[in-house]
Each structure stands twice: as structure tokens, then as C-alpha cells.
Amino acid sequence: MKLMNKVLRFALLPLFVIMMMGCAGSKSGQVSESEQVTPAQQNEYSEIEQLLGISPADRQTASPEQGQDDLLSLLQANEGDQTAVSKEPAQADKVSQLEQEVTQLNRRLEEKDKTISLLKAQVMAMEEKKPAGTYVLAGGAEISDQDYELNYQQGYDLIRNRQYRDAIRVFESLLAANTKHSLSDNAQYWIGECYYALGDYRAAVVAFEKVFTFANSNKNDYAQYKLGLCYYRLNDMKRAKEEFQSLVDNYKNPDLISKAEEYLAKL
Fold first, then answer.
1. CB burial class (10 A; 0-12, 13-18, 19+) of residue 204?
2. How far apart are CA 77 and CA 13, in angstroms?
3. Gap between the Cα atoms of 3 and 69, Å rounded
4. Distance of alpha carbon 201 from alpha carbon 195, whole angstroms
5. pLDDT tens for residues 198-249?
6. If DSSP states are collapsed to H, E and C, what string results for 25-93?
7. What torsion, rounded to 10 degrees, do the Cα atoms 172, 176, 178, 181 define?
8. Which CATH architecture has domain 145-266?
9. Backbone conformation region of residue 199, classed left if phi is above 0, alpha if psi is from -120 to 50, else beta
10. Average pLDDT value for residue range 107-126
11. 0.70 surpassed by pTM
């Protein structure tokens, strides 16, 4: 509506200027009967004045000179309005472009939020799969017997799932917490089994030899048999023969002795 009023003002202003100039000329000289303003013309002038924002009081009190000055002011204002109207489409285009850029930025932010949410979900899923309490014993913190047994079972389950390195960390943390527990010698033995399964036979030898440092361990005979196997895998047949023979001479486990004798027959 405002734009329509401006357009009407632009169209009517030149006509009004001509009319006002005519009126000014009439006032300065004598007016003939044919030049007098008729009521119909006066109504047209009034409608144009309303569109141009000129009140009847302004028209009555204005002098011819002031009227001419006002006309010049209106013409100058008209030129300014024309410039403003010409700028409006460009400003509208710029606003539209900015709105499009804001929309694109909002879409990018939404995509990044979705990516972050997806990554968080993946991290949470990984945390849920991670065995609970696997590393809580690092640093040798003491734990209760019940917690010791729970963590021991956890390490054993990791071996069954062939997660040998994770199992090693669990058993090592148990030994760091307490070497006097009834399951501590078993924890040491399973460390050796994990290294053996990983093919690290030298590390396995070190782990199995530590089993003998525990008094009355029920894993001594198994550790002795595994020492023979480790040296056999390392192609150290002399040491392998010695370890297998030590098993036959010092232990009474018939199954292990039978297996050791089979290897001795090959050596």
C-alpha cells in the first residue's frame, strides 16, 4: 500500500505542479471568466492534494511565492522518493540472499548435530561392550575377595572369547592388587597361556616360571608342561627335553605325563 501511494504521488506530482503554476499565474494577473476554476476542477485539485499530503489549511495560508517554494520542495522530495523506490528491489534481493545463506547454515548445523549424536551413540555402544572393571585395579589398589573373584572370572571369559591381551591386563591388575589371594597363582598361569596363544613364547616362558613362586600352587604341573611346549615351539629342543623330563620325574598328573613322554620320544 505504501508503495502504491508513492507511485501515485510520482504520477500526480507533475500534473499538480502545472496546475499550481497556473493558479499562481492567475493570482498574479487578472483572471478571465474562462480561466476561473470550476467546482469540478476544484474537487480534482482537492483529491490530488490529499494524495500529495497537502492539507486545505496549508493551501489557504500559502502565498504564491511560498507555493512555488513548496513545489520545488515537493519536486526534490519526489526525486528522493524515486531513488528510494529504485533501491527497494535491490535491498529486497539482498535480504532474500541473506535469508538463503542463513537457511543453508542452519542445515549445515543440523547435519553436524546429527553427526555428533551418531558418534556419541557409537561411543556409548563401545563402552557397553567393554568389560566392566577391566582396568579398575591398575596401580595395585586393593579389592575385596568378592571383587577379586568377579574380575578373575571376567579375565577367564576374555580368554574364552580369544581376547587375550585384554585378559592379560585383567590378570595383571589382579596380581598388582593382591598376590596372596587363592586365585593369584591361577591368574599368573593364565597370563602365560595368553602369551602362548598369541605366539609370544618367550613372554610365556617368563609368565609360566613365575607360577612356581606361589606356594602350593595347583598349576605347577601345567606350568611345567607348558614350559616344555614353549621351548619346543622356540626350537630349543634341549631345553624342551629338560622341561618335559622334569614333569615326568616330579609330578603325578598321568595325562600330562603321557603327553610329555610323547614329546620325549620325538626328541
1. buried
2. 11
3. 26
4. 7
5. 999 999 999 999 999 999 999 999 999 999 999 999 999 999 999 999 999 9
6. HHHHCCCCHHHCCCHHHHHHHHHHHHHHCCCHHHHHHCCHHHHHHHHHHHHHHHHHHHHHHHHHHHHHH
7. 20
8. Alpha Horseshoe (1.25)
9. left
10. 74
11. no
pLDDT tens by residue, 158-184: 999 999 999 999 999 999 999 999 999
DSSP H or E segment with residue 105: helix 64-129
Cell of 208: 609360566
Q: List every span in the chain annotated with CATH 1.25.40.10.
A: 145-266
- CB-based contact 168:191 (threshold 8 Å): yes
Look up residue 192 and give its three cell numbers.
602365560
The pLDDT, as a whole number, for residue 45 is: 57
* Residue 118 φ then ψ, to 5°: -65, -45
